[in-house]
Write a structure and sequence with these properties.
single chain; alpha+beta; Immunoglobulin-like; 2 domains; four-stranded antiparallel sheet
Length: 193
C-alpha cells in the first residue's frame, strides 16, 4: 500500500510542477493589455542592448579588448572568467558599427567539419598562451557542437548581440592570453578568477 501511495504522491508532485511551470510561462509571456505600439519597442530592446547581460554578471563597462572584423564588425570582450570546472568563459558582444546590414563571415565557425555541420558560430575562436606555447580551441559537447554563441547570420546596422565562448582553462599562473577569431584582429585579454 505504501508503494501505491508513493506513486500517487509522485504523480501529484509532477502535476504540480508542470502547472507551476505553465503558470510562470504564461505570466512571463504576457506583455500586458496595451496595444501593439507598446510591445514593439520592448521587443526590439534586446537587439539594441547587448551590454545589459554584461552588467548583470558584474562585468566592467570598459572592455578587456576590442577586435575589429570585416565590414564594420566589432567584437567587444567584457569578461574572461576562469571557472572551477577547468574552463574559461569569454563574454562580450558582437556589434555592427556600420550603417548597412552585414553577414557574419562563415570563417568565424572555423574549418572543423564537426563544428561547421552545427551551423554558423564563433567555433573558430582560439586562446593563445604565448608563454606556455599552447593554443586552446573552443570546447565542444559530445555531439561536436561548439560551446559558443551559435545561429549567427546577419547583423543590421548598429545592432549588437551578446556572445560567449568557452575554452579549456590555461594553467592557473597564466593570466594574459591572446584571443583570435578568423577575419578579426587579435587582442590580448586578462583572465580573472
Amino acid at each position: 500500500m505504501s508503494i501505491r501511495f508513493t506513486a500517487k504522491a509522485g504523480r501529484g508532485m509532477v502535476a504540480l510542477t508542470v502547472a507551476a511551470g505553465l503558470a510562470l510561462g504564461v505570466a512571463g509571456c504576457g506583455g500586458g493589455s496595451g496595444g501593439d505600439d507598446k510591445s514593439s519597442p520592448s521587443a526590439s530592446a534586446p537587439k539594441d542592448s547587448g551590454s545589459q547581460p554584461s552588467a548583470q554578471e558584474g562585468q566592467a563597462d570598459t572592455p578587456l579588448a576590442e577586435l575589429k572584423g570585416t565590414d564594420g564588425l566589432l567584437l567587444r570582450v567584457t569578461s574572461a572568467q576562469r571557472d572551477a570546472g577547468g574552463f574559461v568563459t569569454v563574454s562580450g558582444s558582437l556589434k555592427n558599427d556600420g550603417a548597412e546590414s552585414v553577414a557574419i563571415p562563415a570563417q568565424t565557425s572555423g574549418d572543423e567539419t564537426e563544428v561547421i555541420k552545427h551551423g554558423q558560430s564563433l567555433g573558430g575562436a582560439t586562446l593563445v598562451d604565448s608563454k606556455g606555447k599552447k593554443r586552446y580551441y573552443v570546447l565542444r559537447d559530445t555531439d561536436g557542437r561548439p560551446l559558443t554563441t551559435t545561429g549567427l547570420t546577419t547583423l543590421e546596422g548598429g545592432q549588437e548581440l551578446p556572445v560567449f565562448m568557452q575554452f579549456p582553462a590555461p594553467p592557473a599562473g597564466t593570466a594574459d592570453v591572446a584571443l583570435q577569431l578568423p577575419t578579426f584582429s587579435s587582442g590580448t585579454i586578462k583572465i580573472s578568477g
